[in-house]
Design a protein that fits this description.
mainly alpha, about 300 residues, flat, 11 helices
Length: about 300
Amino acid sequence: MAAVALRKEVIPLRTSPPHPAAKVLGERADAVRARFEASTGYRRTRAPEWLLTLLAPVAGIAVLVALWALIAKLGGRIPDPITVAHAAAKIFADPFYSKGPNDQGIGWNVLMSLKRVGIGFGMAALVGIPLGFVIGRFRFLSGMAAPIIALLKPVSPLAWLPIGLLVFKAANPAAIYVIFICSLWPMIVNTAVGVRQIPQDYLNVARVLNLSEWKVFTKILFPAVLPYMITGVRLSIGVAWLVIVAAEMLTGGVGIGFWVWDEWNNLKVEHIIIAIFTIGIVGLVLEQALVLLARRFSYA
């Protein structure tokens, strides 16, 4: 059989040559710019990257404040930024005053909310992360847990509050219980997904080397799953801080959620806006702290 040689033809890309006048116009533009810079001393330069990075959020905040001022002027019921700024100066002049169990500064309320979040979130981490490892490691347990997680994960966190009040007979442990429930699912799911993403070859090598389950966990599973686990922690802390405000509105006591509701009962809308910004800033700090932690422990 005769061999058939296949020849691949390369067709050159046809491009039209530049217009002769383009080069002349470009040279003239460069000459005019050079004479302008020499006569005025002005030289056009690109803004540094750090300046653009700084100006972008500042511009966003300025637009938000401008829209807020416009809505306050047109609506009439929402206080304007200047009024809120004056009220904030008075509140943060003494944020840790205490005039009784139901009359405390915004600082004590934020700290009490953070305490509840810390306890509930810590308990969820102690339960959820090991459970996620086990579910991701063993297929049978994963099949058992899948319908339970799919059934309970979409439930609103506040739906668990009556159960907490029924079981614990007190508002504070019930709020912590709600934080525990809502923080549990992101850590379980993300940790289990991280375990499943480990290449099977790694586990086969561990089986050939007859490594113990503890060695498999410390040398293979944990380093590979850590980025997924920290992602679950970030999601959980965001949900926990979101839920505690709503839970405290219903349970009462000392906390930023109760403080917001109490100020609404007193018709101090400017204090509610201050609380909204305070909640957002605290949530941002928590999120950025976990982002830094994720960068510190990420594996390339």
